[in-house]
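Protein modeling request. Please complete all fields; requests missing the sequence field cannot be processed.
Requester role: graduate student
Desired output: 3D structure, token encoding
Chains: 1
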Amino acid sequence: HKEIKSYIAYFILFISILFIANGLRIVNFVFTGRFKHIGRIISKVNWTGNENVLDVGVGKGILAIAVAKKLKNGSGKVIGIDIWDSEDIMDNTKYYVNQNIELEGVADKVKIKTQNASALSFKNETFDVIVSKQCIHNIEDKQERKMAIEEMLRVLKTGGKLIISDSMYIDEYEKILLDKGLKVNISSKYFLDTYPASSILEVTKK
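Delivered output (206 residues):
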């Protein structure tokens, strides 16, 4: 009986440690990790300030705002698109993201549109850079995810860069891009700074 009680105590301790560790990860992500990860994403581009950028799944606008600040001294602009699913992220609304953009002083650089990633309205080869963070995995249908990747490639200029950070389906995205004859670079997952743990995929359109 003592051994059983001992095993139960160790098990409870182990579960408690897991909960605490997970809680610390979430706290780190909210206050510092997500900003560090956005820094990683935008560091993949050698910015001139004149880039036309598309942010697919703009959410609260944190990534779009960081990109816009890279364009402050040039002619570049950011378009952020989303479908504004209020059940997906708290305060994920067009009004909220526009508030954030105003507060950060980049309203002249960022335009927000309601649009589906798998059916983009833009002309072929419109953007120099396309970024997407924690978005494409929300598309439940595999074929529609493929369409979203293909649409991003379509509106990306030749020589332009596509950067996707996601916690799921990265291998799936890679296969789609490899089948197009493109060279794909994928980071390992960043467990400390992202929640859920996410990788960064980057590709240059040929």
